[in-house]
Amino acid sequence: METIIPEYEIIGNPKLLMGSEPEANKSMPNNNLFEPSTRSTNNRYSAPAPANKAQSFQPTIQPAYQPPPNYKIQGPIMKNEAPARIIPIAALNPYQGRWAIKARVTAKGDLRRYNNARGDGKVFSFDLLDSDGGEIRVTCFNAVVDRFYNVIEVGKVYLISKGSLKPAQKNFNHLKNEWEIFLESNSTVELCPDEDGSIPRQQFSFRPITEIESAENNSILDVIGIVISVNPSVPILRKNGMETQRRILNLKDVSGKSVELTLWGDFCNKEGQKLQEMVDSGLFPVLAVKAGKVNDFNGKSIGTISSTQLFIDPDCPEAQGLRAWFESGGRNTASISISKEIMPGGSKNEIRKTLTQIKDEGLGRSDKPDWVTAKATVVFIKTDNFCYTACPLMIGDRQCNKKVTQSGNKRWLCDRCNQEFEECDYRYLLQVQIQDHTGLTWVTAFQEAGEEILGCSAKEMYLLKYELQDDTRFGEIIRSRLFHQYLFRLKIKEELYGDEQRVKITVVKVDKVNYSAESRYLLDMVTKNLRNRKQF
Question: What is the pTM of this model?
């Protein structure tokens, strides 16, 4: 056993009882009164002869137990309404009856909904940190969510009591605590209005990048480093059919190693966009990652999860030391990547190809589509059937987007949804010819890619051409978008048209060329080619 808290204050007003034997012992008769009688001739015990016929021995009867006044049957037992004493998070365990903790919220999860055999439900959780450095996760379900979700704010200090402790689920809980608090209907959460400077804002356990190389796959850790490159955000299709965003950046530290950090979802557009703007402007910020997940696919990398937190240029000694090292020469220090070697201008697993290579290498002719990136210039845009009228109705959480036709009453009809409506959507279906230094090809650009190329919505272009019939303005917009250079993310797949197999190239995403990142990519290509020539 390990003593966690060496001293406790005295509870109540205990008194030392000074006295002799209990009253029951005083009333006991002498032992000689219970001596056995002499044996009779028939070996039976006879009754003892009384010493005096007028007096006979009467044994003393012990009085019945009388409960203390507070516990008489007349009323309920008194309840202890005194407030629970505040204890450190590290001292919490499931066997304590009454406890309270004072801690700061360091992270708050999103409200999530679920469905299982018991029905629908909702859940959210938040992490706490106290003045002793103890951390613990708190989880709320259903009705408790309604009570506390809007109350909890990151950075605020709360007094929390009356919750149950259960073993932490380490698959989802990365905190260094074997327990997790579950708040219940009688739990209390009170905001502490006065700021408590003894409780830190955040607690890190940074690992040097060189140690990540030996870290276990899927382990959760904290890392800090200088952001040396940030790649554009790209769309990724999940296994469930939903699309999300991914952005890759690189960190390096004083250990002489660098590592990839993959941002997913909202991290790409919030912190990721800010980091890209800083790096493109010549700034190299310090980034602290709280609760990043290790991935060992083709080397070691770090990825964000729902509980990950990113801190740009944090105010902590580690960040200050890293900045001082970078400014005093670390900027020019070469670093070795522990992740899969990629070009600084490209995303993870991104394959750069020229337009001629797409044809010469037979891309798209296998069972699965090929995904490549090409830097090319728009040289021609077809204006016939450049968009289509689409169904605006929602099917689940996705829009139908099927082509609709106008009926006789000027309402739009969707054959798939079998419904009519007053207004429809307009979606791009652009046929675009792109060209690089090796050749040219035709590609198809749908809604988002079409908007990026033409710089306006499909509805605006449809109204100009077919309702306002302003061919002059329509033509000006088309001509103004020619000879612009982009990075095209392409999906290449062979499809059947009638009886003929054709390779179809679809634009998944269009990005304006980031010339700073592109220059780094080209310089790296030159360095690699020189290195390869020396080897031969």
Answer: 0.50
